[in-house]
From TrEMBL:
Highest taxon in the source lineage: Eukaryota
Protein name, UniProt field: Ribonuclease P/MRP 40 subunit
Lineage, uppermost ranks: Eukaryota, Metazoa, Chordata, Craniata, Vertebrata
InterPro entries cross-referenced by the UniProt entry: RNase_P_Rpp40
Gene Ontology MF term list: ribonuclease MRP activity; ribonuclease P activity
UniProt-listed PANTHER family: RIBONUCLEASE P PROTEIN SUBUNIT P40 (PTHR15396:SF1)
GO cellular component, one term: multimeric ribonuclease P complex
Biological processes annotated in GO: endonucleolytic cleavage in ITS1 to separate SSU-rRNA from 5.8S rRNA and LSU-rRNA from tricistronic rRNA transcript (SSU-rRNA, 5.8S rRNA, LSU-rRNA); tRNA 5'-leader removal
One Pfam family linked to the record: Ribonuc_P_40
Record organism: Oncorhynchus kisutch
Length: 361
């Protein structure tokens, strides 16, 4: 009825406020269920450098592996299932696959294997799935979810054999994969090394970048004014400002600038310095939660600023966003969350997605 609406993709921003010490606070759930993260950004007004404790937490982020041409059926290896998958120790995501064009695979730490595949692949696999929520008029994409921890997937069982046959003989899906694990142990290490030894792989560590911004206008935020009605800027304006900081866009709007007319939203405060630190790679929720806990302790000693910000971006082409909620790309593939921490342990939580996502939890 309104074709012009198709030109403007819907985006969704969910905002809430709470306190870290409140018994019903859900901050830990939101962090732990956002499985596949590629970038973390920390902004601290009034700070010039990372403290030794913050630097230690960031530098201890888990390493991860890039494995070339890994067949999906390897995740069903009996030894690998028993010692890695069933222990909830692994995050796996197909690398450089486009969720709206290619077959995209993810293995969640819950043991769910997610196959987001095109129609031809789905029909050849012969496994039960469901049409993608983000198809057009005719289903052209399907999602197959296999719970590898279910009793029916015990090795030698009929369902296990059927799934293995589909992935090994019918359609031998393979891809480059990013693999990450949080827990280690002798059996887990051995099983993972056994898998890696059969393929070309390389170990990576998250890339850390930190710099200090001088004489920077920052939004003035009040913990009680989430909507920005009186004493704070509104959430959209605040997130836009964070994006400008991350992209290195000047907020001065000087007469000599021909690149940007952007200005920091009101009300604002000029700070002599601000820290912007980013971490990129395959970033595990457990490491991000450790960083959040350390940031909560930042205000244990008196500080100039009354707030700081933590932003976490998910992979654009991950088949899931939060938990096992299906994620699509459409025109941006955005799925992120932002936490604003205040001195009194209050926080704001912003969760953003595009048009091809469920409402964040």
């Amino acid at each position: 009825m309104y074709p012009e609406l198709d030109k403007c993709p819907r985006s969704l921003l969910v905002c809430e406020k709470s306190n870290f010490e409140h018994e019903k606070s859900r901050h830990d759930t939101h962090v732990s269920k956002h499985y596949f993260n590629h970038k973390v950004s920390v902004v601290i007004p009034g700070c010039g450098a990372l403290s030794s404790r913050l630097a230690s937490v960031i530098n201890n982020f888990s390493k991860y592996f890039l494995v070339k041409n890994l067949p999906v059926y390897e995740f069903l290896d009996k030894d690998f299932l028993k010692n890695v998958v069933w222990n909830g120790a692994l995050y796996a995501l197909s690398y450089k696959t486009s969720i709206d064009q290619d077959n995209t695979i993810a293995l969640l730490p819950s043991g769910q294997l997610i196959l987001s595949v095109d129609k031809d692949t789905y029909e050849q696999l012969g496994l039960e799935g469901k049409p993608s929520q983000y198809n057009h008029r005719q289903p052209m994409r399907y999602v197959v979810t296999i719970n590898l921890t279910d009793k029916s997937m015990a090795p030698e069982g009929k369902r296990y054999q059927r799934v293995l046959s589909s992935l090994k003989e019918r359609v031998p899906l393979k891809s480059d994969f990013l693999l990450g694990r949080h827990n280690s142990g002798a059996d887990r290490d051995r099983a993972l090394q056994s898998l890696l030894s059969r393929y070309q792989w390389k170990e990576h560590r998250p890339v850390v970048s930190s710099h200090t911004l001088k004489d920077m206008p920052c939004p003035s935020l009040n913990a009680l004014d989430l909507r920005g009605d009186q004493r704070s800027c509104d959430p959209h304006s605040f997130l836009e400002w964070l994006g400008a900081v991350s992209a290195g866009v000047s907020c001065d709007n000087t007469a000599a600038s021909f690149l940007s007319t952007y200005v920091c939203p009101e009300p604002q405060t000029l700070v002599s310095q601000a820290l912007h630190c980013t971490v990129s790679g395959l970033l595990l929720p457990e490491d991000i939660y450790s960083l959040l806990q350390e940031l909560q302790r930042y205000f244990d000693e008196p500080k100039i600023t009354s707030w700081l910000s933590l932003t976490v971006h998910g992979f654009m082409d991950s088949p899931v966003s939060w938990g096992d909620a299906e994620h699509g790309f459409h025109k941006g593939g955005e799925n992120f969350y932002n936490l604003v921490l205040f001195k009194n342990q209050d926080y704001w939580l912003h969760m953003g997605t595009g048009s091809h996502d469920r409402c964040p939890p």
